[in-house]
Fold:
Amino acid sequence: MSVALGPVRAAHAFDTARLEDWLATNIADYRGPLSLEQFTGGQSNPTFRLTTPERHYVLRRKPTGPLLKSAHAVDREYRVMTALRGTGFPVPRTFALCLDETVIGSAFYVMDYVEGRLFWDPTLPGLPRAERAAIYDAMNATVARLHRIDYAAIGLGDYGRPGNYFARQIDRWTRQYRASETAPIAAMDRLIEWLPANLPPGDETAIVHGDMRLDNMIFHPSAPRVIAVIDWELSTLGHPLGDFAYQLMAWRLDPETFRGLVGSDLGALGIPDEAAYVAAYGARTGRAGIAHLDYYLAYNMFRLAAILQGIAKRALDGTASSADAPATGARARRVAAAGLQQMERAIAAGI
Structure:
């Protein structure tokens, strides 16, 4: 499936002439005139396709209006993609970053437009069975590759604080959740109490994407190969198993809760089951298995619920990036309930 484009939403409109002047000054070989369309998917930073007679670009900006502290960090996205590009990791080429909010009303950056396939449905309808298996293997290989990159060697040694990742993230997302809370969610209150009191032992540090779902990967137009990983807003230095377990939520959630695989016949589809997917990542990263997996999943569902709650709050405030933000935000309660189930599994396993 290709990405969906539409006219620029009124809430996200800006002075195109002012932008074009900036592009001509800051991007080599830029040639106008310029036309704009807005990507209709995604929930965070408003994203636009810029079209000139010679090529397409993508502009990604901070929303305007009141924002949660540390959210929508387009400068961090620009930095990590620029660094990773030098390793050969599949990210779009970056062109320029603008922190001057007077140009279009908020900070933004410009990157290459990558033509390919984007899959929103994890069951991959319409694809041959063998290609589904290959798509999932490519996703697995991509997250494993990211976690093996020497972040210090590519200038990202200060991209986050190594160590104590889960405690810091739980504290951060608890504060973000409380700041965007619109109605009590009992499951979130229980997770907020239990998660920091039951941190798994051991620590590791790698570059983590923070949102590396299937639909944040652009695949080759005709081959099961990842050609670009996008949406790096939540990236930092952190524990790779937290990042990997984020992908595993698909095997524990149903489609109505959040783009899950529960209820699908994975064998008939050619999609690996959770155990096979975990084993493939383990083989690529030198792990015999993953202890405390239910904890990592409970943490990720808590975190996702906090993100969804933030979308719900932005929808109420009128600053959400997508027109379907209210429906997406409403899923926070269901994801939190699923997180509570993972917590109960972890307790039963004697974490």
